[in-house]
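Write out the 3D structure for:
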Amino acid sequence: MERVEWPQGEERTLSLYLKPVSKVMYCEQCGARCQQIHETTVRRVRDLPLFEYRVVLHVPRRRVWCEHCGGPRLEKLAWLGRYQRVTERFAKACEKLLQAASVQAVAAFYELGWHTVKSIDKIRLRARVAEPDWSTIRYLAMDEFALWNGPLNLRTQSPA
């Protein structure tokens, strides 16, 4: 860890500035060992709360030159996905809470955006629910649906 910034006054965000400790780097795409750093950028990533503090990690994301792929690729980090702005363990905590609460409730509890929690929930559902065999489905019936709070409320019935 490079440094820690504790919250001042009413602020509730604890900032942890990380630094790379491993000299061994691996390509995120092919997994090959890489020797050369192409560039480094800092990404802000949310982690699990610490007591009453929201934790933000400032992670140096290294783009390495992969000889196998033939170009710059992100360094593989086991605890952070390619485009993710939350750590894997924070996503797992959200998944656990989503089993008992709504997306809106989890977003409010962890002070995350609704769309962030919804994307975590979609990933969880895709991993747990198998894709149906669409060739065996002959009819798709819908009982009722509403388009938000607008004046249009459509109802359909299927003969069953």
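Helices lie at 88-98, 103-110, 114-128.
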